[in-house]
Design goal:
303 residues; alpha+beta; 2 domains; 6-stranded antiparallel β-sheet; 5-stranded mixed β-sheet; 11 strands; 46% helix
Amino acid sequence: MRVTRVSLGLLAGVLTAVLATMLLSTPCIAQAPAEQPPHAWFMANAELLKTTEAFVRKLFAWGPDVTVKLGELKQSPAADFYVVPLVVTVNGQSESGEVYVSKDGKTLLRGEIFPISSDPYADNRAKIHLEGSPSKGPADAAVTLVEYADFECPHCAELYENLKGIETRYPQVRVVYKNFPLTNIHPWAETAAIGARCAYEQSPDAFWKVHDAIFENQDLISPEDVWQKLVDFAGQAGLNPDTFKACLSSDEAKKAVEADHAEGVDLGVNSTPTVYVDGRPLPGGEPNTLTQYIDYELAAHKK
C-alpha cells in the first residue's frame, strides 16, 4: 500500500471519529476490578485482544503494512464494556485512539454497534443490486467496486479520471456504475443520467462511450443543450438516433435512474461520488484510500 500524507490524514480522521463518538463520561462510573498479576491478565484477555485486533483491521482495511498495538483492557463507564486503547502506525507515524469491546467479546462500539462475529459490510452488499447495471471487468470478479455518481458533479469527473489508472492497475476488479443525480443542485444531471441509461439499454458497450463523453465535456453542457449533446454523444457511440430519442422521452430509463437513486438512499448515500468496495463505503472516492481498500480486499480473498 502506498501511504501518503493524505491517506495518513484519513487514518487520523478515522481515529478522531473513534474518539469523538465514544461514550461520554457519566455521573456513575463502575468501579474497576482489582488488578491481576500480569501473566494472569494476559492469559484471561489474550483471545479478546486477538479478536479485537482482527476485527478493527477488517473494519478499516488495515493490511500487514499497518501496525496495530492494543493496550491493556480497562473498565469503561459502561459496565459491560472494556476500553481498549490502540496505537496505529504507518511508515513510522502513529495515531492513537480507543474502542469499546464488550466483555463477552461479541460487540465493538465505535459510535455504532458491530457484532464481531459478523461481516460489517454484509448488509451493504445485500442492498446493492449488480444485475442490470453498467459494468466493466470480470463478472465473477473477487472484488467489486460500485460507484454512485452524478454526471454534473465536478468531483465525479475527477474520480472518472482517477478510475482510468485504477482500472488499468486492477483489471481483475469489476467496476459498476450507478446513477445518483443531485437534482436539487444540478439541473441537467438527471437528464444526462437518463441519456446514459438509454445508451446502456441499446448497447451496454456504448454506455461507457456516452459516459466518458459526458464527463469529458461536462463544462460544455448546459440545461439548454443537454438533450442535443446527448443525442450527439449517442451518434458518436454508434447508437440508433431515433431509438435513442424515443428512449429519452419514455419513462423506462427514468425509472431505472430512480431505482439507482433509491438504492443509494437506502445505503445512506448523501453525496457524490460515493464508492463501495465490496460493500465498504468511501464517500468522495479518494484514490489512495480506494487503492488501499482494493488491495485489502484482494489480499483477503487470496487467503
